[in-house]
């Protein structure tokens, strides 16, 4: 705790309140610009079920993890850092959904990583995953909250 106080004193910090729509987008922009954010508190937050599709929580497969690389983000280097990290965790099977899987051919030899294109399989894999790793996506976040699936962004 002392280190955190010292860190704040040396570098300084700003306390802000953010209100309105697209707060997650604000957080993503801060993260992309390497701005540290901590001690987030939400007020008056309501969790609503998905509007379009019926999602079902399935029996969790203890070693299955879904990794979602957003089709709207093309930061290959960040994706490779995630892949370098997860390939070391041999006791879990990672299913990576991406529309640019040809960019990750050198990871195909990893036995604990499977690449898939976005398809109808995603809903089934998502509903039975132990947790989800995602690069972004407000809909995916709300679906994970609705199904009570841990999500790492």
What labels would you give this structure?
alpha/beta
How is the secondary structure organized here?
Elements: H1 2-11, H2 23-32, E1 64-68, H3 76-86, E2 93-97, E3 113-116, H4 121-127, E4 131-134, H5 138-147, E5 151-152
Radius of gyration: 18 Å
Count of helical regions: 5
Percentage beta strand: 5-15%
Order of helices and strands: HHEHEEHEHE
Unreliable spans are none
Oligomeric state of the chains in view: single chain
Largest sheet: 5 strands, parallel
Percent range for helical residues?
A: 25-40%
Q: Which descriptor suits the 3D outline?
A: globular
- Mean residue pLDDT: 80
Instruction: Count all strands and give the number.
Output: 5
Strand order of the largest sheet: 3-2-1-4-5
Span between N and C termini? 25 Å
- Structural class label: alpha/beta
Description of the structure:
The protein is of the alpha/beta class. About 30% of the residues lie in helices and about 15% in strands. It is globular and about 45 Å long. The model has no long low-confidence stretch (mean pLDDT about 80).
Structure at a glance:
By secondary structure, this protein is α/β, with parallel strands linked by helices.
